[in-house]
Design goal:
The structure is a single chain. The radius of gyration is 12 Å and the shape is globular. It contains two helices and no strands. It has helices spanning 7-24, 30-36. By secondary structure, it is mostly helical.
C-alpha cells in the first residue's frame, strides 16, 4: 500500500532524522538536509554514512 506524505510531514520527518543523526554521528544524504532546510554536513553525499561504531 503506497501512502503519500504532505510536504509538511516530510519536512518534519527530515528534521527529526537530522536531529537524531547529530546524536548518532551518522551523516545523512544531502537530500535529507535540503528537505529539512538545514545546511548539509561537510562530508554529505547521496548515501547515508553510518558511524563505524553503529554498524
Amino acid at each position: 500500500m503506497a501512502t503519500t506524505e504532505t510536504p509538511r510531514v516530510a519536512r518534519a520527518r527530515a528534521r527529526a532524522a537530522v536531529a537524531a543523526s547529530k546524536k548518532t554521528g551518522d551523516i545523512l544524504p544531502r537530500s535529507t538536509y535540503k528537505l529539512a532546510g538545514v545546511p548539509p554536513a561537510k562530508n554529505a553525499t547521496d548515501r547515508i554514512q553510518r558511524k563505524a561504531a553503529n554498524r
